[in-house]
Structure formats: structure tokens, C-alpha cells
Amino acid sequence: AKDHGKGRFATYDQELDRRSVQHAELGAELRQAMGSGELRLMYQPIVSLPEGRVSGVEALVRWHHPERGAIPPTEFIPVAERTGLIVPLGRWIMREAANQAARWTTNPLTSSVTMSVNVSARQLREPGFPEELAGVLAETGVEPRMFTVEVTETAVFESDAGLAALRGVHQLGVRVALDDFGTGHSSLGLLRSCPVDVLKVDKSFVDGVTGTAEQAAIAISLVQITNTMRLAAVAEGVETQDQANTLFELGYQLAQGFHFAHPLTPEEVTGLLIRTAAE
Ligand code: C2E
Ligand code: CA
Ligand code: CA
Ligand code: CA
């Protein structure tokens, strides 16, 4: 029995080793990728339901690896967080998104679009994060109120440093969004202790809006809470017209998802903004 146990542990160790080697490789490659144009940002529209217009966009990072092809962010962001590479990567993302936001500001047909950027827990906790963000906005000339930082509840919940940084961000006039709301170590109390402007209601709750009363309950409660607290709510992962109609009836003003648009190139977003502004 002892041998059997040992054997199992050996296999487990090998599996761990194999995975950490893969992570180390991916980490090294990511470091290179940052300087080589393999990373790009795509922008997914956030749509105003009453007006049917693009109100803002969320920046989503893409990695086109020369040999491995497209590596999804769900694969490399966690590696970047573990290796600390998220700090320089996050800096690059922030600057790139601000530069793009600044380009849209120069044209009256595109100037009303807001920019949301995902910030991971590690990046938020990095000393000087709010000051750095202030610097990027000042250099690019982007108005703080046109910029949103998306963080998960867990990022705020886990550390006092995270919460302190969010207060700093909010003081700049930058908007704060809680991402994937309801899926983390959430507590509704966070809505009072944390300077929140926007709740992004996770897709898992949006999926339920056209289902039974029980399946729809959380999406219904969350929009009521946000309306009472004067926060904005964004319904995430909307895939059907039926869901969009129901969300609007429930009081949602903003939505995002493949039903409206997939993540797009900056040129595609510009085209969409110009077309809808002309309508
Ligand atoms: P997220 O912040 O919740 O981003 C939304 C994800 O849902 C995106 O996947 C988007 O393409 C996808 N999505 C949007 N609409 C729909 C829909 O209708 N149906 C379905 N099934 N999916 C939809 P993506 O781009 O693969 O990003 C995955 C996650 O990776 C993000 O989740 C975020 O946590 C992380 N991530 C992406 N870009 C960045 C970044 O620049 N920085 C950081 N720190 N994390 C990022
Ligand atoms: Ca997000
Ligand atoms: Ca989300
Ligand atoms: Ca998510």
C-alpha cells in the first residue's frame, strides 16, 4: 500500500513539474511577446439598451503566438499573475487602451465612447498604481471620467492594499467596476465599503433571465440594488435578442455580449461608432 501511495505521489509530482515547466516557458515567451507586437487589444462594445448605441468598450488582450497561434487570456493572464509579469503587461495594456481612447476623443463622432480596462489583483496592489494611472491619463489627455477600471470582487476583498488603491483610483475621477459580480467571494457589504460605480453582472446570471423565476432571481435583484444605490449595471454575456429584451424590461440600461458584438479591432469599433452616430 505504501508503494502504491508513493507511486501516486511521484505521478503527481511529475504532473506538477510538467506544468510548472510549461508555465515557465509561457512566462518567458510572454516576456518576449510584450516587445514584439504579438500582443494586441480588441475592444468589445458595451451597448446602451434604450438607445441601441455603443456607450463604451472593454479592452480585451489577445496574444497571437507565432507557433502556438492564438493563446486565450484565460490561459496566459493567470501565468502572468503568478510570475509577476502582469505588472509590466498590465502597464502596457493600460497605456495602449488610453492611447486608443485618446484617438477616439479627437473625432466628435467617436468622442463619447468610454474605455474599460481589466486590472488584476496583483496589478492593483502594486504600490503607486493610482499615481501611475493618473500619469497615463495626463500624458494621453484622456478624461478620467471616460475611463473605467474593472476589478473582481476577490481582488478587493483579498487585501486592504487593493481597497486602498481603488479609493485612489476613484479619487482621480476614474470609474470603478466590479467584474463578474456575484461569482467571487462577494458580499453585498462590499457595495458600501468600496467606491463602486458599476456592477458587471456575470453571464451566469444573465443566462437565467429568460428562464424560471428562480433562475432569473439574481439578475432581477442586482438591477434593483444598483438602481436604488445609483450605480450602473452592465449585463455581461448577452447572446440572444430575447435576453436583451428581458434585460431592458427588468431595468438594465447597459449590456455587452456576442448578440451585440464580439471583441473588435479599433478600426471596426470606429466604423461602428461612425455608422451608429449617423443614424
Ligand atoms: P472578462 O473580463 O469577464 O471578459 C469578458 C469575456 O467574456 C471575454 O473573454 C469576452 O470575449 C467574453 N464574452 C463577451 N461576450 C460574450 C458572450 O456573449 N458569450 C460568451 N460566451 N462570452 C462572451 P476573453 O476576451 O477571452 O477574456 C477572458 C478573461 O480574461 C476576461 O474576462 C478577463 O478576466 C481576462 N482578461 C482579458 N483581457 C484582459 C486584460 O487586458 N487584463 C486582465 N488583467 N485580464 C484580462
Ligand atoms: Ca472584464
Ligand atoms: Ca466579466
Ligand atoms: Ca469573466
Describe what this molecule looks like in 3D.
- The structure is a single chain.
- The relative contact order is 0.12.
- The chain has helices spanning 2-33, 73-83, 86-105, 121-125, 129-140, 153-158, 160-171, 190-193, 203-206, 213-228, 241-250, 266-278, and strands spanning 39-48, 53-65, 69-71, 114-118, 147-152, 175-181, 198-201, 232-235, 254-255.
- The mean pLDDT is 91.
- The longest helix is centred in the first third of the chain and has 32 residues, at 2-33.
- Helix content is 52%, strand content 19%.
- Residues 179-180, 200, 236 line the site of one calcium ion (CA).
Give a quick set of tags describing it.
279 residues, alpha/beta, 8-stranded mixed barrel, 12 helices, 9 strands, binds ligand C2E, binds calcium ion
Summarize the SSE layout with pairings:
Blueprint: H1 2-33, E1 39-48, E2 53-65, E3 69-71, H2 73-83, H3 86-105, E4 114-118, H4 121-125, H5 129-140, E5 147-152, H6 153-158, H7 160-171, E6 175-181, H8 190-193, E7 198-201, H9 203-206, H10 213-228, E8 232-235, H11 241-250, E9 254-255, H12 266-278
Parallel strand pairs: 2-4, 4-5, 5-6, 6-7, 7-8, 8-9
Antiparallel strand pairs: 1-2, 1-9, 2-3
The structure holds ligand C2E and calcium ion (3 copies).
Strand order of the largest sheet: 1-2-4-5-6-7-8-9
SSE order in H/E notation?
A: HEEEHHEHHEHHEHEHHEHEH
How much beta, percentage-wise? Answer: 15-25%
Low-confidence stretches: none
Distance between the termini: 74 Å
Shape verdict = globular
Estimate the helix proportion, in percent.
40-55%
The largest sheet, given as strand count, sense and whether it forms a barrel, is: 8 strands, mixed, barrel
